[in-house]
Amino acid sequence: MTALLRYQLELLLRSHRWLPPLLLYALFLVIGVQSGQPILDSRGYTAAGLLPVAAWWVRVCTSGDSPAARHVAAAATSPARVQLACVLTALLCSLGLGVLATVVVARISSPHSADHQVAVPVGEATASGLLAALACALLGTAVGALCNWPLVRRPGWGLLATALLALLALVWAASPAYAAAHDLVTGSHSGAVPLPLLPCLLAARICAAATARACAAAGRRG
Question: Hey, is 222 helix, strand or coil?
């Protein structure tokens, strides 16, 4: 798996297909996060924007290799392992971006509640923001795994399904990503820092189930 992960990461970096999601996320933050904004509000916004990026990177990783090269890698290991490496590569990139964004937001945001009357502990807010980013990255990875090859073989339908399911995961009240981001924004009104452990656990289970299904489908079609 280490060699497969390194191969997939190099393939992703050399293709430059990682750049559009990154630029979109940067634009999202530039528009929605300003210096001096309450830290919990900024954390929720930062975490929510990570979900479509994670889904997009899964799409990039699962479609970035040529069929011939993928067959060679599958023959050397297994189709399921190749699929797992693609999904894990996208997840690791999303988590790295989430950590970087959380650190940057911590430096420019105001450590106060929405009305700037209650001080918010920066350390606790950062930990909460990291957990929210983790939940959104995991759920976005699950969306990408379910809506692209090998479960959805037509690129056009996969793109449409990825966009719609990512949007649903952000706005549906039962979604772990919605719960994690919403708790941060709600906590900003009172200055109370939430700890979105349950959304993270739920997102991890959904991501594991979606990845397992995609890997099983890759193994059957391999």
Answer: coil
Q: CB–CB of 89/8 below 8 Å?
A: yes
| Cα 210 to Cα 204: distance, rounded to the nearest angstrom | 10
Nearest one of 61, 124, 132, 52 to 99, comparing CA atoms = 132
Q: Are 7 and 145 in contact (CB under 8 A)?
A: no
pTM: 0.94
Q: Could you tell me the end-to-end alpha-carbon distance of the chain, in angstroms, rounded to an integer?
A: 18
DSSP assignment of 64-123 = SS-HHHHHHHHHHS-HHHHHHHHHHHHHHHHHHHHHHHHHHHHHHSBSB-TTS-SB--HH
Closest by alpha carbon to 170, among 29, 44, 59? 44
pLDDT digits (tens, 9 = 90+) for 186-213: 999 889 999 999 999 999 999 999 999 9
